[in-house]
Design brief:
The protein is of the alpha/beta class and 288 residues long. The protein has a domain of 179 residues: Rossmann fold. 32% of the residues lie in helices and 24% in strands. The chain is built from 10 helices and 10 strands. The strands form 2 sheets. A 6-stranded mixed sheet has the order 6-7-8-3-9-10, sandwiched between helices. The protein has a 4-stranded antiparallel sheet with strand order 2-1-4-5, with helices on one face. Strand 9 and strand 10 form a beta hairpin. The longest helix has 14 residues.
Length: 288
């Protein structure tokens, strides 16, 4: 099957596969202060009576990669899942505070959750493609949001190119996505998130379950995508955080095991000249 290779440039906000991100030294942060994409104020999440994370205030910059690092159990994943409203699915979960996206607090109960998840895509730790064809995995979201079948070929090709996967799968689009390698499956999941053209992509340890070659491809893809998307990545791998991110937030937990943010700043400063002793101890390997 040959999909369309020409499309109206006004219809696509996706970068071509392999396109370079704006040149910046890795981890140096933006040359000038970028606009804020999501402004988080006093975010607190409870699971029943347990406070998982408390009083997080953080401005996530637009078209940058924000890394969230810290020891296990400090609330990193809870923060990103709350932005995608995944916490709504957890019995007993309560979220307070604000997360402002385009002037709207997306944490309010009355906000359309389906629309939030279209605007804020999520990629999980383990690849989770649908038990469908490669084509149908990418087409699923656009179909759900009303894209006509005759336009889907273009969407699927454009998105797979943007996810640096097209050349590997173009001759087997109607084969099961479950037959792909782990790294390919994860890039397919990123493509699935990209297909509805979100503003933000959240990645919860996206490379932790795949091999080193697959990890490298994911990191290269993140570098390409930041020109078009705002990306937040949770990672336990500090080398990865230093390689791929512009800014980094360090979280830890208090005596009650409630997570909180200790420090936030340009990645190069967090790793070479942190302001807080807790941060220095963590990035130097003294604990965590």
């Amino acid at each position: 099957m040959t999909l369309a290779t020409q499309h109206d440039s006004g219809q696509s906000s996706l970068p071509a596969a392999g396109s370079a991100a704006p040149p910046r030294p890795p981890g140096a942060g933006p040359a000038s202060a970028p606009a804020t994409r999501i402004a988080i104020h006093n975010l607190t999440v409870h699971y029943g009576t347990f406070c998982a994370v408390r009083n997080v205030t953080l401005d996530i910059p637009a078209n940058q990669v924000t890394a969230i690092i810290g020891p296990s159990g400090c609330g990193k994943s809870t923060v990103v899942r709350s932005l995608n409203r995944m916490t709504d699915l957890v019995p007993g979960a309560r979220v307070s505070g604000e997360a402002i996206l385009d002037g709207e607090n997306i944490l309010r109960p009355e906000v359309d959750v389906v629309n939030v998840r279209r605007r804020i895509g999520m990629v999980f730790q383990r690849p989770n493609p649908f038990p469908k064809s490669i084509y149908d995995n990418v087409a699923y979201g656009p179909r759900l949001h009303g894209v006509r079948d005759r336009d889907l070929d273009e969407v699927v090709e454009r998105t797979l190119r943007g996810a640096a996967l097209w050349d590997e799968v173009k001759d087997k689009l109607h084969q099961s996505a479950l037959a792909l390698s782990g790294g390919q499956q994860q890039r397919l999941c990123i493509a699935r998130a990209m297909a509805v053209e979100p503003e933000v992509i959240l990645m919860d340890e996206p490379a932790s379950a795949i091999d080193p070659i697959g990890t490298l491809r994911i990191e290269e893809l993140i570098a390409d995508l930041r020109a078009t998307y705002t990306i937040v990545i949770v990672t336990h791998n500090m080398q990865q955080a230093s390689r791929v991110s512009d800014v980094t937030a360090f979280f830890t937990m208090d005596e009650d095991r409630a997570g909180y943010m200790v420090e936030f700043g340009p990645t190069i400063e967090i790793f070479t000249n942190p302001r807080n002793q807790l941060t220095e101890d963590y990035v130097s390997g003294r604990f965590g």
